[in-house]
Amino acid sequence: MDSTNPIDNTPEIESTIPLDNTPPIDSTVTMDSASARDYTTTVDTPTPAMGAVQTKPNSGKKWFLIILIGLIVVFGLLITAYYFSHDDQIGVTVIRMEGTMVTGQVSDADTIGSEVVGRELRNAADDPMVEAIVLRVNSPGGTPAAAQEIIRDLDYAKSKKPVVVSMGDMGTSAAYYVSAHADKIYANPDTFTAGIGVIWKFSDISRWMDKEGFNISVVKSGSKKDMGTTSRPISDEEQQYAQKIVNDSFENFITDVITHRPIARSDIEDGRIVRGADAIRLHIVDEIGNLNDAISGAKTMAESRR
After folding, report:
1. Pairwise CA distance, residues 82 & 134, whole Å
2. 297 with 156, same domain?
3. Domain check: are 115 and 239 in the same one?
4. Domain for residue 131, yes or no?
5. Domain-embedded: residue 291
6. pLDDT tens for each residue of 236-248
7. Are 125 and 164 members of one domain?
8. Taking all residues of the chain, what is their mean pLDDT, rounded to a whole number?
9. In the chain, helix, strand, coil percent, each to 5?
């Protein structure tokens, strides 16, 4: 814009009034609308004094990150301290197989399901923080199928890390079937173990039913369809068939055990129970010791594989 007004030819305004006794400014000030806005902004916005602290917009984030990093460091130090103060059990997990073994997910004071034990074994095997597994066994046995399901999961776990068995009051029959697959077995001197065998029981209350006047009529598609019913004794043919099933199951059982353990077949094929102290001599168990001994042994095995 020209310094003179083209409309009225009024001379440009010269600043001659001093502000706060400041000498007059010699330069001529000419303002158009844009320069007026600039001037107003300059006047309204105070200039920070020399040495004044200016707050940066990212300073809050910076302090937040510093505090966060500090907390992470402190937390890491606490974990490290806990690790070294509990080094005797770090990396060893205990899984309990207590009660009569059945297939399924049941778990109560008297019964343990194969799916419960199997899931815990596989989870421990896949956990990078677990170095070894102790299977705490306190069971009189159970069904062959339940033992076979658990064995598959135990073998999976053993392929990844040491698996040690610790027997409590007893680890007999199907419970020993499972235990034989572990890397090492601990038992107490008076733990009941072994009991290798298969049994199938049939009850007959037919005479009591006759006495009380009960009568049952059965319609069946085959001669053995109601085999095992309590309303009559089993026939000779059924007895022979049941014996074959038991024999086949037992042969599978004992062959598996003596394949995984250095046990003489003649020492266990009669199905007798063996005390823990005597089981050492027969190679049925490896060490006399309690749960803590088994945990220490499992940790030693894990350290040797590092």
Report:
1. 22
2. yes
3. no
4. yes
5. yes
6. 999 999 999 999 9
7. yes
8. 84
9. 40, 15, 45
Residues 249 and 163 in one domain: no
Dihedral sign for Cα atoms in the order 69, 72, 77, 80: negative
Question: Looking at the structure, do residues 191 and 292 belong to the same domain, yes or no?
Answer: yes
pLDDT surpasses 80 at 101? yes
Write out the catalytic residue numbers: 173, 225
- Residue 177 and residue 151 in contact, taking contact as beta carbons nearer than 8 Å: yes
DSSP 8-state class, residue 266: G
244 CB-near residues (< 8 Å, 6+ apart): none
Is 173 within a domain?
Answer: yes
Domain that holds residue 165: 90-195+272-306
Token readout for 111 is 């019964």
pTM score, whole prediction: 0.71
* 27, part of any domain: no
At residue 83 the predicted structure's pLDDT band, cuts being 50, 70 and 90, is low
Q: How many domains does the chain have?
A: 2
Span 129-153, average pLDDT:
98
What confidence score (pLDDT) does residue 198 get?
97
* 133 vs 78, higher pLDDT: 133
pLDDT tens per residue, range 40-50: 444 444 444 44
E strand or H helix that includes residue 236: helix 236-260
Residues 170 and 304 in one domain: yes
Same domain? For 223 and 244 the reply is yes
| Judgement on whether residues 205 and 98 belong to the same structural domain of the protein | no
Q: What is the mean pLDDT of residues 192-215?
A: 95
Query: Which of 212, 203, 253 shows the shortest CA–CA distance to 232?
Result: 203
- C-alpha distances (whole Å) from 158 to each of 57, 102, 124, 155, 188 are 57, 22, 10, 5, 23
Q: Comparing C-alpha atoms, which of 193, 202, 289 is closest to residue 241?
A: 202
The number of helices, as runs of H, and strands, as runs of E, in the chain is 9, 9
